[in-house]
Specification:
Length: about 270
C-alpha cells in the first residue's frame, strides 16, 4: 500500500511539472505573438510614414516660392494663400496630383474633411480645379474650360431663378469650375474624343434645348403670385440663358456635359 502511494505521488508530481511546462510554453507563445504584433505595427507605421514622406517629396515640385498665391477662376472666385498655407495644402492633399483623378464630389467626400464648412467646400473645389488645370494644360484646354463654365453657369442660373434663389446656387456657382475641369480631364483622356466631336447632335441638342424651355414655361406659369405680364417677362429673361447654352453646345461633348451637370445637381 505504501509503495502504491509513492507511485501515485510520483505521477502527480510529473503531471504538475508537465502542466507547468505547458503553461510556460503558452505564456512564451503569447508573449512572442504580442511582441511580433508590436513589431509589425511599428514596421507598418514606419512604412506608412515613409510612403507619406515619399509622396510629399514627389509633390514638392509643386511648391511655390511666391509670398502669396492668388487663385481666381472664370467666375471671379478669389482665394489668396500665403506660401506656407499653399505648400501645406500640397503636402496634405496628394489627391490633387494622383495619376487617375476622380470627380470633385468624390474627392471632396473622401479627402476634404479639413474644408468642412460651405465656404471651405468652395475653396476645396476651386483648389481642385486649380491643380487639375495644371495637369490638363491651362492654355491647351482654355477654350473647352471657358465654354463649359459658361454652359454650367447658364444652367445654374436657370434653376436658381426657378427656385427663387438660395445659397445652394451661390455655392454651386463657385464650385462648378471643378466640374468643368473634370470634364476637360475626361475629354482629354478619352481616346475617341475626336470622333465624338464629329458626331452630329443637332437633333439631340434641339430636344435638350426644347426641354429646358418647356421646363421654364411650365414652372413659371404655375406661379400664382405673379401677374401674366411678370410671367412673360420672366420666361423671356430665363430663355436668354437657354439661348446662351444653345450657342455654346456645338458637339456631343458639350451636350453630354450639359445634360450630366443638370441631371446630377438639379
Amino acid at each position: 500500500m505504501k509503495k502504491k502511494s509513492v507511485i501515485l505521488l510520483f505521477l502527480f508530481i510529473i503531471s504538475c511539472e508537465k502542466n507547468k511546462i505547458v503553461n510556460e510554453t503558452t505564456e512564451n507563445k503569447d508573449s512572442l505573438t504580442a511582441n511580433t504584433n508590436i513589431f509589425s505595427k511599428i514596421a507598418e507605421d514606419k512604412q506608412k510614414k515613409y510612403e507619406s514622406q515619399k509622396i510629399k517629396n514627389l509633390n514638392s515640385k509643386h511648391y511655390t516660392t511666391l509670398d502669396t498665391v492668388v487663385i481666381r477662376n472664370e467666375n471671379d472666385f478669389l482665394l489668396k494663400l500665403s506660401r506656407q498655407d499653399f505648400n501645406k495644402i500640397i503636402d496634405n492633399h496628394p489627391e490633387f496630383f494622383d495619376e487617375i483623378i476622380q470627380s470633385p464630389d468624390i474627392t471632396y467626400r473622401n479627402f476634404g474633411s479639413d474644408f468642412s464648412s460651405e465656404a471651405g467646400q468652395d475653396q476645396y473645389y476651386n483648389l481642385y480645379a486649380y491643380f487639375l488645370a495644371q495637369k490638363n494644360g491651362i492654355e491647351k484646354n482654355a477654350r473647352h474650360r471657358k465654354k463649359l463654365i459658361r454652359i454650367y453657369s447658364a444652367i445654374n442660373s436657370i434653376f436658381g431663378y426657378l427656385a427663387n434663389g438660395g445659397t445652394f446656387f451661390g455655392h454651386q456657382q463657385s464650385r462648378l469650375v471643378a466640374d468643368a475641369e473634370y470634364a476637360v480631364y475626361l475629354h482629354s483622356e478619352s481616346d475617341n474624343s475626336q470622333s465624338k466631336d464629329e458626331y452630329d447632335v443637332s437633333k439631340q441638342k434641339k430636344l435638350y434645348i426644347q426641354s429646358l424651355r418647356q421646363r421654364i414655361d411650365d414652372e413659371v406659369k404655375i406661379d400664382k403670385e405673379s401677374t401674366e405680364q411678370e410671367k412673360t417677362e420672366r420666361i423671356q429673361e430665363l430663355n436668354e440663358f437657354v439661348n446662351e447654352a444653345d450657342l455654346l453646345i456645338t458637339n456631343l461633348f458639350y451636350l453630354r456635359c450639359a445634360q450630366h451637370f443638370q441631371y446630377n445637381y438639379y
